[in-house]
């Protein structure tokens, strides 16, 4: 059955309001005067109520221009096709990298092709996409941005040794170089206990004219606002054995008969030397009354029961 729309149209055109989008309609028109109503003139075919244009196409893939510790700035190109009707705005969506769920960002359409997404979580990784809209509705989403980690570009980054110190052997009288490579933001301060040189991220300690006294564990410490890191190594200096005879042993020593005799003679040399101790051509290392202890700093001779022999 037909539903009357109006009886007051005085012209040959009329706009019919309140049609339902997507519904199919037939229309008919009748002329009226004081003598009555004409036969109806029917529409030649059914008409579907819809806009004369479609939703817009996909916008260009968004570019991420600026990243802070809680926001990003996006910009994008307009769709190649607006669907035949003017674009009324853009919708921005985000998702975390391990999620399939896209979440709306803006509560009302963005009127430009730039937008700052705020309230993001630092150290999280996100993707973003854009949807254009006109009076026909929302179009298809753009391609997503590349994965973007939310991080303040000016934030401090703790030092990290990409090349650590290595245990090093050298020869007495020569130069020993210890080298490490460290990165960090801002550039870390370096602490040694010796003079160093620096070449970019490389830190070099040069031990000139090395002696056995330089045998030790060495530490480099890198520090900045983000924290600190250390790297360690051991340095060994190869050198021939040299005795450092204390003054008291440079004269005659007197002991009581039967008293243990302990003689400690400091020496330098690396690696540990083999020691042979003789008296009157006799090898004392085979004497059961004699013991010899060799440490990395001294040789200790102990005669358990001293006598004149």
TrEMBL record:
Put simply, this protein is called Titin
For this protein, the record's PANTHER family field holds: TITIN
Which residue numbers delimit the Ig-like domain?
153-236
Signal sequence bounds: none
Which InterPro entries does the UniProt entry name for this protein? FN3_dom, FN3_sf, Ig-like_dom, Ig-like_dom_sf, Ig-like_fold, Ig_I-set, Ig_sub, Striated_Muscle_Regulatory
Tell me the organism: Adineta steineri
Keywords in alphabetical order, please.
Repeat
Top-level taxon of the source organism: Eukaryota
- The UniProt record lists the Fibronectin type-III domain at 1-52, 58-153
Concerning SMART domains, the annotation shows: FN3 (SM00060), IG (SM00409)
